[in-house]
Amino acid sequence: MESFLPKRPLLFAGLWIAFFFGLRLWIAGTFPLVPDETNYWQWSRHPAWGYYDQAPLTAWAIRGSTLVGGHTETAVRFPSILAMAVASLYLVRMAHRWSGSAAAWHTALLSQGVLLFNVGGLLATPDALQAAGWAGAGYHTARALENDRWFQWLTAGFWLGTGMLSKYTMVLFPVSVFCFMLFYPRFRKRLLRLRPWTAVFLGGILFSPVIYWNAHNHWVSVRHVAHIGGVDSPFTLHPKFLLEFLGTQAGLLTPLVFLVILLGWVQAFRESGKNAWIFRYLFFTSFVMVSGFAALSLHTRVYGNWPGAGYLTGALLAAVFFGRGDAKASPFKTLSLGRRLWPWAVGSAHLITALVISHAVFGILPIPPQWDRIASEVAGWPELGAKASAMQADMPDPEDTFLFGLHYQTASELAFYTPGKPETVSINRWGRPNVYDFWWKDRDLKGKDGIGVTYDPASHTRRLSAVFKRVDPPVALEIPAPGRFSGSDRPVKVFYLYRCYGFKGGLRWRPPPGSDIRKIP
Asked: Coil, strand or helix: which one is 402?
């Protein structure tokens, strides 16, 4: 890869990040918001110190962005785009400070190509904001370990708090640093000093609004996290979940990038010299996060993006070790293999990312509709909003007719893509608790008519009949397959819209029989 090294690598690293920042900003307005994005956008319309299943910074950031840029796809996604640029610049700063400008260039080259980072840096989810917190805390903690100055420790604490306000998994960052300091004799005695703990305390102060909100709402976020972590499930080992986890990691990073990060973890303990400590530090701030979720996946299903922030410093390690030099120049097999794989890892990462994003925008891949996960997430929401609005206008009292889904994802998409962006309802009775339980009560809607959207006309007709006095047969809205399969007889999905009359009550989730930690006393 030395032949691809620019003459001014640090400058080109910055320009590379700036180019991808602009590219993501353009792409952001070219395809509809996916359900999780509209869910966070809905949160932004209901400001709070906390929310049921995630920390609040994403909602706060989207609210600020849409106040300035309007309620558009680009404005909703802008905080993520900006945050990923900040995270990328921090990674480049780390690479440059401890490994030189060539490492900085290779870090920029890899970080802008990884699929996981691009998805997180484009879609409006907590991942990019946490990435900025992780990278910022990672850089300033390393500087603090180097010079033990108050400014660096406090800045690290600020970024720790920012990351925790973005996503709860940020709590693993101080755990990772603690493990590193405990392992490394040079820094072990620092654990007895005030400064590192002051940084943790500052992060906790910034996170305190979330604690306050949970304390006044039956600790619902803690209950939710515990539930998805399998706390209330009998302890059993599921090797298939671990294999599924490893497969999703390789898919989201792309297989060769996943492999060079694994090799980077090994090489971190083979390096020597005055800067060897930084490589161990990067190992701990990557491996602890990823291995922790790998262990958890033996018990419960783990979503592929959960350990995402840990790969930031892992990718930095890979770039530092393998982005430089001749593959034949090293006596270490990991270095030789990593350097041979490096150009293919970077190239395949950019290629796969380009294909996935191009398919989301243009539908270029020849994927049959029934297997096209991207199209099923993206396609049809504007058409659904227009259809729901037209049906609402035909109701006896349109102004007093509410729009609803049986899942928060559908309700949120309805809110964004129905003309006028009305408030919508999620009937959670048969699903799971979520933020809509905090916004609507039965008394707010009793006696009103509704237009509802589901995917299953058989079972959902029976369910809706339990909460409405009368339910008309559903109207099907077929969403055609995009791209190469646009002429296919098989739609990518079908919505069923119902005219419902006289809401009787029954919005809230009803816990299943038996133990469920999400139950509110």
From this structure: strand
Asked if 110 and 91 count as a contact pair (C-beta separation under 8 A), the reply is no
Residues making up the chain, counted from first to last: 521
- Residue 338, token pair as written in the block: 């990593």
The per-residue pLDDT for 324 is 74
Q: Which of 152, 160, 151 is nearest to 208 (CA)?
A: 160
Q: What is the DSSP string of 315-373?
A: HHHHHHHHSSS-TTS-S-HHHHHHHHHHHHHHHHHHHHHHHHHHHHHH--S---GGG-H
Q: Is the pTM of this model over 0.85?
A: yes
Given this model, what pLDDT does residue 236 score? 83
Look at the alpha carbons of 423, 212, 303, 265 in this order and tell me if their dihedral is positive or negative: positive
CA 195 to chain centre: 31
Going from the C-alpha of 491 to that of each of 32, 194, 311, 358, the distances in angstroms are 18, 61, 37, 20
| Cα distance between residue 67 and residue 50, in whole Å | 20
Q: How is residue 147 written in tokens?
A: 């010079």
Angle between helices 57-69 and 73-99 (to 10 degrees): 120
Residues of the chain short of pLDDT 70, as ranges, are 1-4, 325-332, 483-488, 521
CA distance 147 to 419: 56
Residue 50: which region, alpha, beta or left (left: phi > 0; alpha: psi -120 to 50)? beta
pLDDT for position 450: 98
Q: Kindly report, residue by residue over 210-256, the tens digit of the pLDDT.
A: 999 999 999 999 999 988 888 877 778 889 999 999 999 999 999 99
Tokens linked to 364: 């270029």
